[in-house]
Design goal:
This protein is α/β, with parallel strands linked by helices. The chain is about 35% helix and about 25% strand. The protein is built from ten helices and 14 strands. Strands 5-4-3-9-10-13-11-12-14 form a nine-stranded mixed β-sheet, with helices on both faces.
Length: about 280
């Protein structure tokens, strides 16, 4: 159980919140407002896994979310691909000097994302209702509003919705933006998103990318993702330990996505943020 593996929460209170959430689901007491760091997150229904995690854990990816806030303290653009209802977008946009460009393809989930942005009066966020891929056009995604498992699908007869798909390099160029941190969570199609950055990948300092086996099932697998980033000059996969302020090759918490750091930036992390990069591939 994730509660037992999270050292950053009071386990007794977390279990109580989890049980209260199950009761809330049974009695359909939604929407409800949850606390996430210094933000408010509105959970519109009980089927959203992100809402359940926030309810129980708060900063459910404590290490990664802490690193993002640390890095954005001096500003920079956070690109959130697969924003869902906005947990990472809210974490990043708490830093007033930062900018956020958030992509969520499902139209119903996108409304929830915008509601959370508006509820927190975040004027430093641009939200785009589109999927991201290595070509522009239209694409079918699973019709699972609010779900963290929404993904591109080609299965005939499967309940789906057709949405726009855009390239990141085009979206960034159209707005005159330069990416600093990129987070990608698109349920197996992460390589396509990386390809869509084109030459803009050279501007990125850190990539948070989901590699959980779904890329092997639905697309090309984890190896091409790692190979592309390493060939582009990144070190990884790494994992951030907020307690020791280290980026290490050893996973420090179940469920948190791996991190790739631009090699040219790795050596300056210690000086700029007081973070050590402990990796053989440096």
């Amino acid at each position: 159980m994730r509660i037992a593996r999270n050292p950053h929460i009071h386990r007794g209170r977390a279990v109580a919140r989890h049980l209260a959430w199950q009761l809330r689901k049974l009695t359909a007491r939604f929407p409800v407002e949850l606390r996430l760091s210094n933000s408010a997150l509105i959970a519109t229904h009980g089927r959203c896994g992100i809402s359940a995690l926030v309810n129980t854990h708060g900063m459910y990816d404590y290490n990664n979310m802490t690193l993002i806030q640390l890095m954005l303290s001096g500003g920079g653009l956070f690109v959130d691909v697969g924003a869902n209802i906005g947990a990472y977008t809210l974490i990043a946009s708490e830093l007033g000097a930062a900018q956020v460009l958030a992509f969520e393809p499902h139209p119903v989930t996108f409304v929830a994302l915008c509601s959370n942005i508006d509820r927190n009066c975040r004027r430093n966020v641009i939200a785009v209702c589109a999927a991201v891929g290595d070509e522009s056009g239209m694409v079918a995604i699973t019709n699972t509003p609010g779900s963290s498992t929404t993904h591109i699908t080609s299965a005939e007869g499967f309940d789906s919705v057709v949405v726009p798909m855009v390239r990141l390099d085009s979206e960034l160029a159209a707005r005159g933006l330069k990416p600093y941190i990129v987070k990608i969570d698109v349920e197996g199609y992460e390589l396509n998103v990386l390809k869509s950055l084109g030459t803009a990948l050279a501007d990125v300092v850190i990539v948070f990318v989901e590699i959980n086996g779904l890329s092997q099932i639905r697309a090309t697998g984890a190896e091409p993702i790692c190979a592309m980033l390493i060939a582009a000059g990144f070190v990884g996969p790494l994992y951030y330990d907020a307690a020791s302020r280290e980026l290490t090759e050893i996973p420090v918490a179940a469920g948190e996505d791996p991190i790739f750091v631009a090699r040219t930036f790795a050596n300056s992390l210690a000086q700029k943020l007081g973070i050590s990069v402990v990796a053989r591939s440096r």
